[in-house]
Amino acid sequence: MSVLVYTESENGALRKNAFEVASYGYAVAQQMGSSVTAISINASDADTLGTYGVAKVLNASGAGLESFNAKNYADVIAQAVQKEGASVIVVSSSTDAKYLAPILAAKLQAGYAPNVVAAPSSTAPFTVKRTAFSNKGFANTEITTDNKVVGVSGNAFGAIENPTTAQVEAFSPDMSSADTATKSVEVDKVSGKVTIADADTVVSGGRGLKGPENWGMVEELAEVLGAATACSKPVSDLGWRPHSEHVGQTGKPVASNLYIAIGISGAIQHLAGVSASKVKVVINTDPEAPFFKAADYGVVGDAFEVVPKLIEKLKEFKAQNG
Amino acid sequence: MKILVCISNVPDTTSKINFTADNSAFDTTGVQFVINPNDEFGLTRAMWFKEKQGATVHVANVGPATTEPAIRKALAIGADEAFRVDAEPTDGFFVAQQLAEVVKNGGYDLVIAGRESIDYNGGMVPGMLATLLDMNFVNNCIGLEVDGTSATASREIDGGKETLSTSLPLVIGGQKGLVEESDLRIPNMRGIMMARKKKLEVLAPAAATNATKDTSFEKPAPKGAVKMVDADNMAELVNLLHNEAKVI
Ligand SMILES: Cc1cc2nc3c(=O)[nH]c(=O)nc-3n(C[C@H](O)[C@H](O)[C@H](O)COP(=O)(O)OP(=O)(O)OC[C@H]3O[C@@H](n4cnc5c(N)ncnc54)[C@H](O)[C@@H]3O)c2cc1C
Ligand SMILES: Nc1ncnc2c1ncn2[C@@H]1O[C@H](COP(=O)(O)O)[C@@H](O)[C@H]1O
């Protein structure tokens, strides 16, 4: 009855969310008096999961697993579930995890609770707290099936160190009935840029920035902070920024440590998607902008004056603090 | 090509969310319901397949009679026929099983659902449905072309997009991008009149099980007051972010 965590990797290296799901899995295992096994695919640094309490890693690779395929990856995880006799499976809230989790749940006849923000309040019955209504509320959800799939929200539970030594085992799943119908043809991704999903800080611009030519300072601010860039919906609809940067209820969700909103009014649909961020800074000329009510720090002022000054002060700060 | 568009009926995006006095349920008092925004993009894409490729478009919803305005709206936008499975959509697994029956009986080639409903944010019905039916599945779908039985779909990934080749029968979890915002259809008078005559069949639910149960709800803790920083004092903002908020 161990806990199985699916730890994602990219280009051979575990992603930040892998350590979060490992930490979450460890907490569940402690509650249930069992241990955590991780299943990773193509990770070359799987042993580092030991830092977060993972006792054993099944590291899968092979034909059909070279690149992400939701059905095949779900199948590998299901085989690992069987091998380990696991009943609780923990996945992240990445785009890929949200793609494969329902497939996995249906395969295992398991209930799936996504967007979970805390360790189970009880494991029998198995009850977790998760966001619902686009961050306007929380649901306490009981998973009533024998097998349970838990999707942990990014940056909610955190990566918590519980050092142990992880035994890494090569795992060769049976891929004889692998899915070949759905194939990746092209991946279009800016390399070397931190993504909204993985970023600790997100710098976001709205229609108040007047036009795409003014994004230089947003990018510079993001660079100083090691942040990802994002935008409000009209900004992507107007073609000022790519759709992949659109955040909010109908765009990407944001759950960063720091979210800086520049020239964004704070419409309810925008807030719904970004309010899971821990600290929000709002820069807006209009003191009545609704976003100030949802902010931690506010600056009333013209972005074209405020942002360059903020960049300058941050550079000074970085120079002093390394 | 026969397309089924799955629509969920959700609170309007501007709704205030409240729960009943004992926190056991969502309080729908005064709440306006709409077609889930992700499904509106899917429905508009389905209309394109109807107009350009002669597809037949049906819509389905699992819900009580109160969801019929949303279904009628989908018919007014141009769907040919509709089904309502007469049951409370108690959880994603249950809904997926109900929709699987509709898909099996209707022999659909393409099922267009949304990446998630904006009410319970399950994001699970399309993936479960595809798995129950052993159909191909693309989630977070932001582009779809069909040529005979082959399909090319693009999906959003963290940090960009991926193009996939796949084939019918196919289920997608769609979202904005599937069509442009400006292409979204609004029903016109003629559509509304025609929708009244279109078939909206009420189906008895199939035997199905639940896998989860929402036992109680909570509102987020009230937000502390915002701390204002003078626009001429960005050094202070940096100081607060470092020493107080500890995020830089
Ligand atoms: C179904 C639905 C779903 C939606 N989903 C989303 C979503 O997911 N994400 C989203 O973002 N929106 C969404 N919206 C749109 C949302 O309602 C708002 O229209 C949108 O968020 C507004 O974007 P904005 O704040 O950039 O622009 P505006 O509302 O135009 O605000 C611009 C702000 O910039 C300020 N400003 C102007 N000049 C300056 C300056 N020089 N310096 C500083 N500040 C300045 C102004 O005071 C103003 O507050 C949705 C709407 C609907 C109906
Ligand atoms: N009650 C329902 N009736 C019909 N389709 C639904 C229903 N609930 C969810 N769906 C479909 O599944 C998608 C994802 O919903 P969910 O899994 O609830 O987040 C929605 O966008 C709809 O396309």
UniProtKB/TrEMBL annotation, chain A:
Question: One biological process GO term for this chain?
Answer: fatty acid beta-oxidation using acyl-CoA dehydrogenase
Q: Which SMART domains match?
A: ETF
Q: Would I find Transport among this entry's keywords?
A: yes
Q: What are the alphabetically sorted keywords of the record?
A: Electron transport, FAD, Flavoprotein, Transport
> What GO molecular functions are on record for this protein?
electron transfer activity; flavin adenine dinucleotide binding
Question: Where FAD is bound, by residue?
Answer: R207, G263, I264, S265, G266, A267, I268, Q269, H270, N284
**Domain (Electron transfer flavoprotein alpha/beta-subunit N-terminal) ranges:** 3-184
Q: Which family does it belong to?
A: Belongs to the ETF alpha-subunit/FixB family.
- The protein in question is named Electron transfer flavoprotein subunit alpha
Task: Specify the taxonomic lineage.
Answer: Bacteria, Pseudomonadati, Bacteroidota, Flavobacteriia, Flavobacteriales
From TrEMBL, chain B:
Under InterPro entries, the record lists: ETF_a/b_N (IPR014730), ETF_b (IPR012255), ETF_beta_N (IPR033948), Rossmann-like_a/b/a_fold (IPR014729)
Coiled coil residues, start to end: none
Q: Where are the transmembrane segments?
A: none
User: Which domain of life does the UniProt lineage start with?
Assistant: Bacteria
Q: Output the CDD domains linked to this UniProt entry.
A: ETF_beta
Ranges for domain Electron transfer flavoprotein alpha/beta-subunit N-terminal: 23-212
User: Can the keyword Electron transport be found in this entry's annotation?
Assistant: yes
Single annotated GO MF: electron transfer activity
What UniProt keywords are attached to this protein's entry?
Electron transport, Transport
Q: Which SMART domains match?
A: ETF
Kindly give the Pfam families that the UniProt entry links to this protein: ETF (PF01012)
Keyword Ubl conjugation carried by entry:
no
Family in the record: Belongs to the ETF beta-subunit/FixA family.
**Know the name of this protein?**
Electron transfer flavoprotein subunit beta
